[in-house]
Structures are given as structure tokens and as C-alpha cells.
Write a structure and sequence with these properties.
Elements (H helix, E strand, L loop, with lengths): L1 E5 L2 E3 L5 E8 L8 E6 L6 E6 L6 E3 L7 E6 L4 E6 L8 E7 L2 E2 L3 E5 L2
Length: 111
């Protein structure tokens, strides 16, 4: 099982990024998926989730209205569109399902 996140980088406050997570080793279309974030020395926190069909999503209060999660079952990928980014969004982002996490991607919001 592998989850490989990508798309992170340096972005200015108010800017946007799209994160991608490529998966393998799971029957992707049967799993709900989620994004989590983690700052250095802090616990990992929930960002957003999406049901196996894509018909249901949920977000942490801090990102509602700014972030959008989506998925492509044919490509076995999940995405996180991040808009109106803030300095506090500077963290490593991971995709996850069933308590499993893959490699993360660093997002830095700074002018």
C-alpha cells in the first residue's frame, strides 16, 4: 500500500495550491479518503475527507470555504485544492485512509 502526496511548495498568503495523492495497493474506489496536516512538534490534524463515491465531504472548521477535496477513482487519486492560504497553513500534508498515512508534502505560506 502506498500513498504519495505531491504538489506542495512555497506560496504567498492569499495564494492557492493543489495537492495530489497517488495511491496504489488498495481498491481505491471502495475507500473513503482524507487529508491531514502536521506542523513540526505537533500532532497530526484532520483537514478534509471524502466518501468513496465522492458524494460526501467534510472539512475542519478552519478550512471550510477555502479548501476543497475531490477524487478521481479511475486514476486512484485524491486532491486538495487550497485557496486563500494563510501562514498557519504552513505544514506537511498527508493523505490517508483507514489509519494509514503515506509520504507527505510540505506546504509553506510566506511572503
Amino acid at each position: 500500500v502506498q500513498f504519495v502526496a505531491s504538489g506542495g511548495g512555497l506560496v504567498q498568503p492569499g495564494g492557492s495550491l493543489r495537492l495530489s495523492c497517488a495511491t496504489s495497493g488498495i481498491d481505491f474506489s471502495r475507500y473513503n479518503m482524507a487529508w491531514y496536516r502536521q506542523a513540526p512538534g505537533k500532532e497530526r490534524k484532520f483537514v478534509a475527507s471524502i466518501s468513496w463515491s465522492g458524494g460526501s465531504t467534510a472539512y475542519a472548521d478552519s478550512v471550510k470555504g477555502r479548501f476543497t477535496i475531490s477524487r478521481n477513482n479511475a486514476q486512484k487519486m485524491v486532491f486538495l485544492y487550497m485557496n486563500s492560504m494563510r501562514a498557519e497553513n504552513t505544514e506537511v500534508y498527508y493523505c490517508s485512509t483507514g489509519g494509514r498515512f503515506g509520504s507527505g508534502t510540505q506546504v509553506t505560506v510566506s511572503s
